Amino acid sequence: MTDYDALLLLSFGGPEGPGDVIPFLENVTRGRGIPRERLAVVGQHYALFDGASPINGQNRELLSALRQQLDAERIDLPLYWGNRNWHPMLADTVAEMTAAGHQRVLAIVTSAFGSYSGCRQYSEDLAGAVESSVADITIDKAPLYWNHPGFLTAAADHASTALRKLGPAAGDARLVFTAHSIPAAWVNTAPYLDQLNAAADFITHQAHADLEANAPASHAWDLVFQSRSGPPEVPWLEPDINDHLRTLHAVGTESVVVIPLGFVSDHMEVVYDLDTEAAATAAELGMTMVRAATAGTHPAFVAALADIVGHALADTRALVAVGEPWPHPCAPNCCDRPQRPAAP
What we know:
- The strands form two sheets. A four-stranded parallel sheet has the order 2-1-3-4, sandwiched between helices. It has a four-stranded parallel sheet with strand order 6-5-7-8, sandwiched between helices.
- It folds into two domains: 6-146 and 299-313, Rossmann fold, CATH 3.40.50.1400; 149-291, Rossmann fold.
- The mean pLDDT is 92.
- The chain contains eleven helices and eight strands.
- The protein has helices spanning 21-29, 36-47, 55-72, 90-99, 116-132, 149-165, 192-209, 241-250, 268-271, 273-285, 299-313, and strands at residues 6-11, 79-83, 104-109, 138-141, 174-180, 221-226, 255-259, 288-291.
- It is of the alpha/beta class.
- The protein is 42% helix and 12% strand.
- The longest helix has 18 residues, at 55-72.
């Protein structure tokens, strides 16, 4: 048995009211030199939702569901929650855990795929929080779970549910998987693209198997990106979902199911960039668009997280995966962010 004495759900965080928006965005962009005027423009997206991102509320639901699952499996470790960019802030949660006497903690991150921002940066955040703590505490980051059957099953179930909403048009619909765009150079040091493509292929086949017998042999699918935030001179992963919808429309596609594969729960990037912006693009083109749900609190996903905890606690419990499970702990150079070229 591994001597963990607490669990930590570590997430991105989001504002919960109008007064939170600019401070939250300042936390997200700290050190990047983004002017306050630009933050105000992005803040207008939040204004459409009364200044609140859905992510914190969904994390509370996930904490409750995970607690129930852990209790059902008789894993009685206390469960904490901390965020990278908004309250409850990670540093405050680490202080709370140390005050309670915890010394060895397992952290589960609400990010399934390997990239700098989705993997290594969370490890850096944990290391920084531990370093600034006055107590003797160790926090280990649990492995990525992009290919855990529970995560994939949840995504496939939501995809097939979305397809059914199209009725007779489901057979001709195209599946459009989305993920947050990242600088193109980052894929040189992270498995982001390979993992997303492999997951999308698996989910497509499993979602198809859940449909009626008269469904086509398989649905066509694409991987696209969204929510780019970098300067225009820096290449980021493409195509953008809105551009891709226009491309699909030009070749006669009438119905799409958009699957936010790169997001475990709803962020502002989901409810604005997809439900608002991409949905408006589809409507403008006369296309039918249905957005599949994120993994959220799907029972298969919650059970997958509990399985990861059980594996970390017991050396005899194998971590299940479609293909090879992600190594635990991560390799020292896991998902490095490539250094910018030195100025001439």
